[in-house]
Amino acid sequence: MNRLVLGSAGLVAAGLLVTACSATDISTHDMSAMSSTPATSSAPPATTVGAEAEHNDSDVMFTQMMIPHHRQAVKMAKLADTKAASPEVRKLAAQIEAAQDPEIQTMSGWLTSWGMQVPRTDGMSMDHGMPGMMSDEDMKKLGTLSGAAFDKAFLTMMIQHHEGAITMAKDEQSNGVYEPAKQLAGSIISSQSAEIATMKELLQ
């Protein structure tokens, strides 16, 4: 009888030992696997919101209006290359062209990314009722001038043109939500305000 009890006890003990060893092996294996697997966060992955989700109607209006506004300024600046008498006027015109040409490309890219129409570059009227825009008649008259007469007309018209752009840019800063457009508006306000001051000095 005692032998049977001892034998049974021995079997139970042996079984417990095997079970313990197996549990230890599995635990060690699992821990090893966990240590070799990169930790993952429970937070959702970061997403980049596209430009189409970040703009509003004010951004679209600002961009669609500022593109033809800039194009007219560049057209006026190109006339100064051959018609201006003053080196200062030619220098200012080159500065305006160099600044606004790339901005036209940037704004056109925004409209394309938003699925919106980029203003045409064909022979449509340049007078869209926008602040500071010259009429087609104004542009034709400027093209007939040269020398000191051109300089005076160019500076007078460009001051008005810049003031209109600043008005549009301030509206964008107040009502737009697309941050790059608002930053461009701020740049237009600062740079064109400085150019207005320069042009007023040249007129005097």
Please render the helix and strand layout as text.
Blueprint: H1 2-36, H2 57-83, H3 87-114, H4 136-144, H5 147-175, H6 179-203
Task: Describe the model.
It is a single chain. With 204 residues, the protein is mostly helical. The chain has one domain: Ferritin. Helices cover 75% and strands 0% of the residues. It has 6 helices and no strands. The protein has helices at 2-36, 57-83, 87-114, 136-144, 147-175, 179-203. α2 (57-83) runs antiparallel to α3, α3 runs antiparallel to α6 and α5 (147-175) runs antiparallel to α6. The radius of gyration is 36 Å and the shape is globular.
CATH superfamily, please? Ferritin, core subunit, four-helix bundle
Radius of gyration, taken over Cα atoms and rounded to an integer in Å: 36 Å
Q: What class do helices, strands and sheet pairing give?
A: mainly alpha
Number of strands: 0
Mean pLDDT: 80
- Estimate nothing, just give the exact number of structural domains: 1
Form type? globular
Q: Level of helix content?
A: over 70%
Strand content: under 5%
The fold-level CATH name is: Ferritin
Return the CATH class: Mainly Alpha
Question: How would you sum up the major sheet?
Answer: none
CATH architecture type: Up-down Bundle
User: Gap between N and C termini, in Å?
Assistant: 127 Å
